[in-house]
Amino acid sequence: MKNDYIKQFILLLILTAFIGLSYTQSHAVTQFGQFTPEKKLPAECSFDDIWFDSGGTKIIPDISMKWLTVVFDPRYTNVNLNNNETGGTYESFVPEKAKALISSYSSLIDFLYDKNLAEDACFFRLREGMTAAELKQLIIQLNQDEAVNYTHPTIILNDKIYAFFNALQIKWKAGADTARKDRLLQQAYVVFDKPENLYRVNVLETPFFTALHLLGEDISVLEATSYLMEIKLAIRVSLALAMNGAHIGDSIPFTFTIVFSDRISIDPSSISNINLRPFNLQRELFDSTFDPYDPTKVVLRSPVKITGRITGYASGEFVLPPIAVSYTCQKCTGIPVRSVETKAIPFKVSSLVPPAKEGNRLLVPTDVIQPDYHFDALRTQEKWSLTAALAALVVFFVCVGWFMVLAYQENKKRGKLIERTKDELLAEELRLIVLSAPPIPHWKYLGDAGTLVRKYIAARYYIPLEHLGGSGNQFVNRISNHIPGTCTGLLRTILVAIDNAVALDIETYPDIVKLRTDMATLIDITARQSDHEVKNHS
Q: What's this model's pTM, rounded to 2 decimal places?
């Protein structure tokens, strides 16, 4: 039983770290549509393929039966993904289309749309009791709609519901070949979105998780992480009255609340002068007072709560105007400066005048009280406070010095590790090629191996990259002063043989076994040399 608890705790830690990496490592994205000249159905997504790999641990999330993600076609939302410009129609189109879909499908009961989360997507709440089979059928039906680009289920991680789209982040291994990366991206239907600094999967051609797993299993990829978004509003504002009616002259308490996520920055000026006076009530007949607050400080942390009282001196029915709040979403796609406002609040004031209150009276004490200022205790407390402050200052400087020494040692170790990382990775990749069975035709296999041999020698002996071109003889002649004589002849033999095989397009090279043995010998000779010997030659 104890071991089961330990395993669950370790799995929870891994899951929490994975969610943090997927949810925060990249800047926020708010456009997810896949542009096509005409309607095209997305690739079918299997629920069994929805899983993640975190450090060798397979994480299988539950499919949420409460929410569904629908991304609309950019042709209808008027979101131009190519030049990062918006026409503005998505703010009205998405809610209207969402209402139409709810009317057409009984499985959809409500929707959540927040342009700070996704400008061209909407989250639909599902009816209670839906099964996985019904959810799959609903996704197929929604994808048939002309305005729907693609539909994804939502997933449950760490008791929170997340949406995934077509965006992901890729960390490549050091020394990964550019041509290999391009081939891998093409095979996975993935393109690099330079303005957003992330990668996007063409979900119309292949399911998102199929591409994610293909990338994660490749040897040139260090890590492939999906972009996840928790389904909750990025900003919410509300104005509430303690009561919706009062007599003339009565003060009504109110509370103005702003709840926002970490991607939102509230403009302090928008809440520095809040106007609550109804438009049909004269200034002299209305009064509003606010409890003291600093606009520049309260907006630093969510939630923001501003309280106060309003008083009406005329009878009738009035409406408190909406309060507009300006905010900035620098990480969102499109225009960063945006605004949101509260709903108008109706309230009534009756003509009944309350009875007059008893006037304030000055109370004068009859007995003179001698104050006791406790000067001795204050002096003792002052000495202790000064001693504690000096001790804390000394501890602070000791800690700073200790951290600086640790940082210096860590940077020194990291610098030594980076110096050897590239040539060791290239040597390991070259060993894998030499040990693996050569595919047909041999000339292409030898051409890739020859390019890798040149890169490895250049990285091992600090040779500039401009010397890599030319024939094998020319390359060896240019770098002969940089490499030891023990490997010059062997290197020349390998490269000349490869040049001949590539030039003649030889399907089956007769001495392929000897050539692979020579390349393995070259790696062993160069790898056994110490850093001091390598730097003497370079």
A: 0.50
